[in-house]
Design a protein that fits this description.
This protein has about 260 residues and is mainly α. The protein is built from six helices and no strands. It has a domain of about 160 residues.
Length: about 260
């Protein structure tokens, strides 16, 4: 199979994943965002009453986009765009990994690439730097927080790629236990060391509702899981179908030659 086949299938899987991720983000995440906005507006209202200035409301349109539009069309556009882009990236990565991760078949190696991507890119960064809802976080530290977040993601992904390469080399020696356990433990240890070395961000106000905070963070994890899980299942299935079709074509060609 060509990289083009993987890319097209990845884009299709990403489109489906983006649509499902929108549903997860809307039903699980938006109620907690509304709760966080209510906390922010209540604090702003108390502050404005003390200073005698009018309070700002998120229901008011900003730049022509209302809160209701942000939570529906805007959210759908974002999740679908991210899903398509991510599906394409996973598809290209799966094409590159084909034949380089032991004796795994195309569908299995594709699933492995997607799972490694979810753990190293999404899950690890969520554990170290969990997302915060509105009204949480200082605008003065957004630059340093963003750099630390993406830097940690980059290091985690690079270490994961190294672990997969090591696993493939160990697998050639027919040592399945070493090939599966040693690279995974090595990656986990190195990622843990890097995570501990990076600065910790704790900017949650002491009076912020804990249920709103953790509800938002958990819903973001659900959305990420739906996004990556759908890409894994759909892309692996499409790759398996494409592989079978390629085998049938190859068998027909050989039968004609004979």
């Amino acid at each position: 199979m060509s990289p083009r086949t993987f890319l097209i299938n990845g884009l299709i899987a990403g489109l489906i994943a983006g649509i499902l991720a929108f549903g997860a983000a809307y039903f699980f995440g938006e109620p907690h965002i509304d709760g966080a906005i209510a906390v922010e507006e209540a604090a702003a209202s108390d502050h404005s009453h003390a200073e005698g200035t009018p309070a700002h409301s998120h229901d008011e349109e900003e730049g022509g986009i209302s809160r209701s539009q942000q939570s529906t069309a805007g959210l759908a556009t974002a999740t679908i765009a991210i899903g398509v882009a991510l599906g394409g990236i996973v598809g290209i990565a799966a094409a590159f990994a084909l034949g380089r991760v032991g004796r795994l078949r195309p569908a299995a190696s594709t699933a492995l690439v997607a799972v490694v991507g979810f753990v190293s890119f999404a899950l690890v960064s969520w554990a170290k730097y969990p997302p915060n809802p509105p009204a949480v976080g200082s605008g003065e530290t957004i630059g340093s927080r963003t750099a630390a977040y993406f830097g940690f993601q980059a290091v985690s992904v690079l270490l994961a790629v190294g672990a997969v390469i090591l696993a493939a080399r160990l697998a050639r020696r027919n040592d399945a236990w070493l090939a599966s356990v040693v690279p995974a433990l090595g990656w986990l240890v190195l990622v843990t060391v890097v995570g501990l070395a990076l600065p910790t961000v704790d900017e949650v106000p002491g009076d912020f509702p804990a249920d709103t905070l953790w509800g938002f963070r958990f819903s973001s994890l659900i959305t990420q899981t739906v996004l990556w899980g759908t890409i894994t299942v759909v892309l692996s299935g499409l790759v398996q179908r494409a592989a079978r079709a390629a085998q049938v074509r190859q068998a027909l060609i050989e039968s004609v030659r004979t």
